[in-house]
Design a protein that fits this description.
The chain has about 100 residues and is α+β, with helices and mostly antiparallel strands. It has one domain. Helices cover about 35% and strands about 20% of the residues. It has 4 helices and 2 strands. It has a two-stranded antiparallel ribbon with strand order 1-2. Helix 1 packs antiparallel against helix 2. The longest helix has 12 residues, at about 60-70.
Length: about 100
């Protein structure tokens, strides 16, 4: 499922994650270097309970989101911290229902 096609609440436009189909393909607004390769998109799988536990050991909400992103994709923490802010915000909105 593409990020743009994620089901959203009619009024608030919040993502209805329970109706989403995984994996979610997120197209970057700004290309990112992942695994040494310039990429234009990333694929997010559905988090497991173990992924949620890993994310919740972080000291704050940004670190929790970074850890969860690393669990559900092929991106490292260093690479996640170099994402453009607009991309990180949109990915955060996608992962927020799990945190």
């Amino acid at each position: 499922m593409l990020y743009e096609d994620l089901p959203r609440h009619e009024k608030t436009r919040a993502i209805l994650i329970e109706k989403a189909e995984f994996p979610i393909v997120y197209p970057f607004l700004t290309p990112a270097k992942i695994g040494g390769v310039e990429r234009t998109e990333i694929e997010l799988t559905e988090p497991t309970v173990a992924d949620l536990k890993t994310a919740r050991t972080a000291k704050d909400s940004i670190d929790s989101t970074v850890r969860l992103l690393c669990c559900v994709s092929d991106i490292t923490e260093d690479e996640a911290q170099k994402l453009a802010t607009r991309d990180f915000k949109r990915i955060s909105d996608t992962l927020a229902p799990f945190l």
